[in-house]
Amino acid sequence: MDRLGASLSVACALHCALQPLLLLALPFLGLSFLLNEQAETIFLICSALLASFSLVQGHQHHGRSTAFPVLALSLALIIASRLPGLSHMEMILAVTGALGIASAHGINMYLHRQFHQIPQTPKPIETIAELNSAQLPLENFSKQEALSI
After folding, report:
1. Which span out of 17-26, 68-77, 85-94, 102-111 was modeled with the highest average pLDDT?
2. DSSP state of 123
3. pLDDT per position as a tens digit, 56-69
4. DSSP state for residue 59 in the 8-state scheme
């Protein structure tokens, strides 16, 4: 899911960065609906929902919240790009926000891979009963020596 989200975010960044050229080319290609303000808003909402869902699932899996601040800042940049008072900075804010969302997906994928590369530490044995029932390699020790360790 992170790969899809990152790909869509990069596509969004390219769309924002190339919008002056797209204004000319898309109508000739029959894709002028991509320049519609409502279509962009729907795309942004879907992108934000996908990123949020993906990061929450990742957090439940690997337990790290490193990507959340990146996502929050990126969404704030995209929201700021839509404000009327910042229309002169719309392109830079939107492109930076979209690349930030792609980065949040990348961080989440990295944390997922890192989680699976680190061997999980076993639960420590806390009682004598657990020690007696534990399957320990005792080839080099007698049972009395193992219990005294």
Report:
1. 68-77
2. P
3. 998 998 888 899 99
4. H
